[in-house]
């Protein structure tokens, strides 16, 4: 090929390459095509959520009717999995950090669980390579990346039941998740209180009843997940769970900053979540 032909070909190629990538159109902030789908599966919580839990597991495990109450949407899955006891086999944790063989999630995915079928139920099993990545995440401690917003006070979220939920059956437990690690020495009966309305639906009439006997368990540290387990004292009523962000013993993060309980962007204020148990118990 003559030199002039080579030069023409080089110019054409440079224009073609420039048209594909030079102006950045069709690419995200990381330079990937916007329609390329999620990045490859890695042994991190965010990657597993994006590649497995959200597209596959939430076909069933989402919303109020999720099997055994296990919701695997992005807002709920970590708190409902890590160190959470299995409903089917309470002696096992759904995810036991560091020990995939003792994690009920792995047993269900591999089809070795003593109760029920292999997950996903009525669907093709996950590839062994995918399960191996989930195993590796558990081996490495089942960590979740710290939330953004360093320096901001911790906020809390009701995971189960949802705030203002109406449930037909007493909850197995109450789950609250913080956006960062709290000083767990301050998460006890002095800062966590459950009460019911006295069957009038109001918490301003003076006939409210404090529900005693709750057992408080810290399920994970960073982020801090608080489980409030109750003995069989439930009655059909409206309930209010309060975690103190004010008063003498407010909940704090490890830096000594009081939680932003009321979600107004500043430290202080109680965290309050409501739910109602309907029907007659």
From TrEMBL:
It comes from Povalibacter uvarum. This is Cytochrome c domain-containing protein.
